């Protein structure tokens, strides 16, 4: 049994791209629900389960399951904060990224995801920079081989969502065009099955062109190498995940090592599909909010929480006597533990930082290169978060002055936001005018008080003066001084014997 997350024995059992694809194909096979869709009449709305939940999935009951929704006032407050921030997006990302991250952790309002996700991942800037490119890709015939593969997989993507019910519906047609456009845009990578659910979630929230550029950003900026034919990035991140698991949850790590449960048996579907086929949809949306803001670190944290919930105690491991039982335990976590607020609170408590992920990437990469000299993937191309994506796009614009800086995305700001801005401006001006008026009144009152006060006796200014004393000689009686008259006492206001001059 290997003592670390990577050894020669481990690498030989999970190293080939073919085995990686077989693992993912088997995972997709478990979720192929197309046989349960029913007849055409059911798809056309005749079935009684036609009612949908707030996310568009069929089979919702009259009362929505799950936790109570936040108050309308709180939702409106969050929407207004996002509206104000997205209308000054460059300033927000350049100076207030920490605030953006905090708001993403609280959850982006459903009505704002179509606007926020493209801004966070850089899809909006890419679309603005490549005006008309998607229409050109969409009109291209594409590779028939890729088209055939995509058409076989389309029906697997959320078959119980109202957008993807019918093969002739706008959802499946739009998804087909989007995935075909990606194979034309990146012919070397072509099509990967895991891109289907990712593109489908994007299409649920935004038009096809925006969804396409978001998929490009996720594939090239956040997860480079994930959807390539070799899938070496997934292999590396699987080893990184095991190394982090050894530190965060040693009990689960020892159990997985004991039963030889390799990371690619469970993290392949988790990471490639961004948990869209694994967790409840409200939780998936919250994970995407955090992932587009904070990067791949979120995928590791979510996976660590799932393993800890399934295998983190001796009681949970009691029935896991082999590989099959262990994998089933990972797939059957109670739904109450996956509720979005509770689950995401645990995700944010996991002590894994960007630096931890980067350090483990370099360590596991060195081990893989020793075992497999032909290993070509390097994680330097992966950007850690939305701020890094924004900075990279700003640098690209600065290095291409001949094309000119692409204009900032323009949005229609709702009237209520403009009205509140005007009210705040008017209130600020009124407050400033009242302050000026108050100061003027105080100055006038002080001036009036000084006029009414009687002037006091002014003290002589003696500072810096020189005192001179003159002595008068005493005259004898012969000189007219009288008959020996004695000088009388000095009287008030009379000249003293010694006169002082200033």
UniProtKB/TrEMBL annotation:
Instruction: Give start-end positions of Low complexity composition bias.
Output: 1-15
Q: Where is the composition biased (Basic and acidic residues)?
A: 421-448
User: Which Pfam families does the record associate with it?
Assistant: RabGAP-TBC (PF00566)
Looking up Gene3D superfamilies in the UniProt record yields: putative rabgap domain of human tbc1 domain family member 14 like domains (1.10.8.270), Ypt/Rab-GAP domain of gyp1p, domain 1 (1.10.10.750), Ypt/Rab-GAP domain of gyp1p, domain 3 (1.10.472.80)
Q: What positions does the domain Rab-GAP TBC occupy?
A: 107-295
**InterPro entries referenced in this protein's UniProt entry, alphabetically:** Rab-GAP-TBC_dom (IPR000195), Rab-GAP_TBC_sf (IPR035969), Rab_GAP_TBC_domain (IPR050302)
| GO terms assigned for molecular function | GTPase activator activity; small GTPase binding
Q: What GO cellular-component annotations does this UniProt entry give? A: plasma membrane
Recorded hits in PROSITE patterns, A to Z, give: TBC_RABGAP (PS50086)
Keyword Hydrolase part of the UniProt annotation: no
Q: Where is this region: Disordered?
A: 1-45, 421-502
The yes or no answer to whether the keyword rRNA-binding is present is: no
Going by the UniProt record, its keywords in alphabetical order are: GTPase activation
Q: Which SMART domains match?
A: TBC (SM00164)
This chain belongs to the protein called: Carabin
């Amino acid at each position: 049994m290997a003592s670390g997350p990577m050894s020669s024995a481990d690498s030989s059992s999970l190293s080939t791209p073919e085995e990686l694809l077989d693992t993912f194909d088997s995972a997709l096979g478990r979720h192929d629900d197309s046989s349960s869709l029913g007849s055409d009449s059911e798809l056309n709305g005749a079935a009684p389960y036609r009612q949908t939940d707030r996310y568009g999935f069929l089979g919702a009951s009259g009362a929505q399951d799950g936790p109570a929704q936040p108050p309308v006032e709180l939702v409106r407050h969050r929407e207004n904060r996002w509206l104000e921030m997205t209308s000054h997006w460059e300033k927000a990302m350049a100076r207030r990224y920490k605030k953006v991250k905090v708001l993403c952790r609280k959850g982006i309002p459903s009505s704002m995801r179509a606007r926020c996700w493209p801004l966070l991942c850089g899809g909006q800037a890419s679309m603005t920079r490549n005006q008309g490119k998607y229409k050109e890709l969409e009109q291209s015939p594409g590779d028939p081989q890729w088209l055939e593969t995509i058409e076989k997989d389309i029906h697997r993507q959320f078959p119980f969502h109202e957008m993807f019910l019918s093969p002739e519906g706008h959802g499946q047609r739009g998804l087909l065009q989007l995935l075909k456009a990606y194979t034309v845009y990146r012919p070397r990578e072509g099509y990967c099955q895991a891109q289907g659910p990712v593109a489908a979630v994007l299409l649920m929230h935004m038009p096809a062109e925006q969804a396409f550029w978001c998929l490009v950003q996720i594939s090239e900026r956040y997860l480079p190498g994930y959807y390539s034919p070799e899938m070496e990035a997934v292999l590396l991140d699987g080893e990184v995940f095991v190394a982090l698991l050894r530190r965060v949850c040693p009990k689960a790590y020892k159990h997985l090592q004991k039963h030889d449960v390799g990371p690619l048996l469970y993290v392949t579907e988790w990471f490639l599909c961004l948990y869209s086929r694994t967790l409840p949809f409200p939780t998936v949306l919250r994970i995407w909010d955090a992932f587009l803001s904070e990067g791949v670190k979120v995928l590791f944290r979510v996976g660590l929480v799932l393993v800890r919930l399934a295998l983190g105690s001796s009681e949970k491991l009691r029935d896991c006597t082999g590989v099959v039982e262990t994998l089933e335990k990972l797939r059957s976590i109670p739904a109450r533990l996956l509720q979005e607020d509770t689950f995401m609170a645990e995700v944010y408590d996991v002590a894994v930082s960007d630096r931890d992920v980067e350090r483990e990437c370099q360590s596991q990469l060195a081990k893989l290169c020793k075992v497999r000299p032909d290993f070509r993937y390097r994680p330097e191309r992966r950007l850690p978060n939305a701020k890094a994506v924004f900075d990279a796009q700003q640098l690209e614009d600065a290095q291409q002055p001949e094309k000119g800086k692409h204009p900032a995305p323009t949005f229609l700001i709702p009237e209520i936001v403009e009205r509140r801005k005007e009210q705040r401006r008017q209130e600020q001006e009124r407050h400033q005018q009242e302050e000026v008026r108050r100061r003027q009144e105080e100055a006038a009152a002080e001036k009036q008080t000084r006029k009414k006060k009687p002037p006091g006796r002014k003290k002589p200014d003696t500072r810096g003066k020189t005192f001179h004393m003159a002595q008068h000689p005493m005259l004898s009686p012969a000189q007219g001084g009288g008959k020996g008259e004695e000088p009388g006492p000095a009287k008030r206001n009379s000249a003293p014997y010694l006169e002082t001059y200033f």
